[in-house]
Structures are given as C-alpha cells and as structure tokens.
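Blackboard transcription, Thursday session:
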Amino acid sequence: MRKGSVLSAFFGVIRRDALSLWRRRADALNPIWFAAIVITLFPLALGPEAAKLARIAGGVIWVIVLLASLLSLDALFRADLEEGSLDVMLTSAQPLAVLAGAKILLHWIATGLPLLAITPLAATALGLSPRALPVLLTSLALGTPIISVIGACAAALTAGLRRAGMLLSLIVLPLVVPVLIFGAGAVEASLTGTSTTQPLLLLAAGLAAAVSLGPLVCAAALRLGNH
Amino acid sequence: MNPFLIWLNSFGSPEKFHRVALRFEPWLLALAVILGATALYLGLVKAPADYLQGESARIMYIHIPAAWMSLFIYGFMAAAGFCALVWHFKVAELMAMAAAPIGAGFTAVTLVTGSLWGRPTWGTYWVWDARLTSELVLLFLYFGVIGLYNAIEDQRKGARAASLLALIGLINLPVIHFSVNWWNTLHQGNSINLFAGKSSIHPSMLWPLILMAFATKFWFGASLLARTRAALLEFEAGKEWAQTALFGPRRPLA
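(Written on the board underneath:)
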C-alpha cells in the first residue's frame, strides 16, 4: 500500500471534515445563532443605555465567543470515535499530531472564523467605539485559535465519556482565562487610550505556543483515551 | 544504572512504597503539628499586631502558607503527573491524584481566609481582584482534574488523562504568580523575598510564616503518603502484599 505524504494526510482530514461539515451546515451555524441570540440578551437584561453597552461591548463579545466555541467542541472527536475513524487515525502511518492539527484547524475555520466575521456587526450593534474595533478583531483573531487548541485537547481527553458536556466546560474555561484576560484587556486598553501592544503580544506568544505544542498535546490526549 | 536511581525506582513497587510511607507518616505528621503549633503561638501571641491592619493581619499566618501550598501542590501534582505519563508508574499516578484534593483544600482555605480578612480591611468579602480571581481559577483547575479523574471508569486511564490535564493547566501558574505585578489591583504586592534577602517584613512576623510554611509542607507530605497508601491498598486489594498489610501475615489453616 502506498503510504502517501504527511501533507496529503493533513489535507485529506481537512477535506473530509469540511465535507461532513458542509453536509450538516445547518448544525454548523449553531454557534453563530447562539452568539447572535446572547448578544441581543445583553441590552434586554442591562437596559438599552448606549454608553453602558459601549463600555462593556468588548468584554461581552469576548465571553460570548468563548461560550459559543465551547458548543461545537464536544462533537470534535466523539463522532470520529463512535464511527471508528478515530481508530484509523490512531493506527495511521501518519503522525497523529498532524491529523489532530488538521481537525483543530477545521474547528477554528468552522467556529472561530464565522464568529470573527459577525463581530463587526455585533460590535456596531452594541455601540463599541469604532476605534476599538480593529483591536477587538485582532485580539479575537489571535485568541480564537488558542481556544480551539485548548478546547480540542480537552475534547480529546473527554471523548470516551458518555456525558462530557459539563466536564468539558469545567476543564476548558479555567484554561482559557488568560486568553480572555488579555483579549478583553486589549480592547479595554484601546478604550482607555493606553497601549494595546503588551496584551496583543502576549496573545500572539500564546498563539505561537498553542499552534506549535497544541497538536502534540492533543495527540497525546487522544492516545491516552483510546489504547 | 547508578545506585541512586535504582533506589529511587524501587519506590515504584507498591509494596515497598506502602512500607516506607507507613514509617514516614507519623514523623511527618508530628513535625507538622509541632511546627504548626509553634508557628501559631509565635504568630498569634508573640508577634506584634500590624501597625496598619491591627490584629486582623494575623490571619496571614494561615492565609499566606496556604496560598503557597495551593501553588506548590499544583506544581507537585503536575510533576507527579509527568512521571505518570512518561514512565507509567502506578505510584506516581495515584500520588498525582491523591495530591489534587489536598491542593484544592489549601486553595479553598486561601480563598476563605482571604475573604474573611478582606471584610474588615477592604470592606468587602470579595473583589474581582487579579490575585483573588486567579486563585479562584486555580480552584476550578483542581476541580477539573478531580472531575476528569472521577469521570473515567478505568482508574489508571483516568489518572493519566487527569495528569495530562494538570500539565496543560501549568500554563496558568505563571499568570497567577505574576498577577499581582501585571495588574495593579487591590491585592498587595509580594513583600517576602527569601532569596534576594530583602523582605519588607519584620523578622518577628517573618519567622512564624516560615515555620508555618514548613508545617504545611510536612502536613502535605503526611497526608499525601496516607492518601496514596489508601489508594494503593484499594487498587491492589486482591494482591498478596495488600492482604498482608491489611490483615497481617496469612496463617496456615488449622
């Protein structure tokens, strides 16, 4: 049997996951609906006072993005585990980290990117200062892949459990607190006129670490759960 | 292999671990009680009240050592988890998992004492201060590790999965440690610096703290050994050594 290259395995996993995502595209939009609904809840709960909403918009959007990303995590490896393709991945001749990396990348494309795309709309609706919008988008662009990586590691650890939803949030949320702090902190800094360089650089450093180490940790977590 | 490593490796044997742990436990416990009692006496009776915060500052003799332990035990748990993941030592797995509830306990003590101290001093039980919040996050991290361990039916698999989670959680430790320096919020900065030799705290207040820090370390040691031993006995209950340890040597049937 021809072994194929690592790269073709990487893109093979991406193509397969993208295809299955496309076939259930209504489900794939769930995080977006969730985010849109929760954003409308804030003015209803806190009152429509524009100044107050503008003040908290950055943090609110960050928290919502975080929670919305959690929604699709549980299914990340569970479906593969149930239908047996995870076993194929585990016994594959290709490095498991590469395959896990492909799945993480697709998770980000399917959840992080759409959330990023609706952020300008949400930010405008909440009245976030246009000055802070580029910072919010940059912080989300740097932060959401970290959330996908950490979330994928947690999903890999809990994939074998029958009911993992609650446990998954308990595991993921404390771990992504630094991301939230620096992400929302950057927006806050741009609102108060202080330098946004430090939090954004820390996020970028986190992203570099997550991208380089994440797939390896995720692969180790998958092996732990399934041998 | 050098003799030290062989000696160290022999603790991977549950039977030997049980024997050695049983011998060390009472000593560690005694040291913890003696040092702790001395520290409490020095701190609560001998040391002067703080010029700014008065008597309420005395809670620091419990609060600060507990806070140190909350981080120390997390580091220990991750280190034991690392050994468990790399070498599959059963004792290391059980040790990492035995450490988690102790660490969660110290974290809870830190939060409760800090909150009790905050009421008279800051005028509130809780503020969303960087140190407090990151300590709360640490508690959640412990809960996550314990939760994952308990959720997975296969005990050894669960221990290793939870160990990996503990290792991932290490990324949060620097955030907690530096939180006081990174965000200028309500919690005071570090005033104790043992190694640079410049602590901004009077020796009469520093000594009870150091003694208490050692007392909590010894208490952790005793408690860790006892918990690991119990977990080992439970895990290997069917084995001969465990039966002997529990019920004494087997007598021939009359």
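Lecturer's comment: Chain A touches chain B at residues 150, 153-154, 157-158, 160-161, 164, 167, 170-171, 173-175, 177-178, 181, 209, 217, 220-221, 224-225 (CB under 8 Å).
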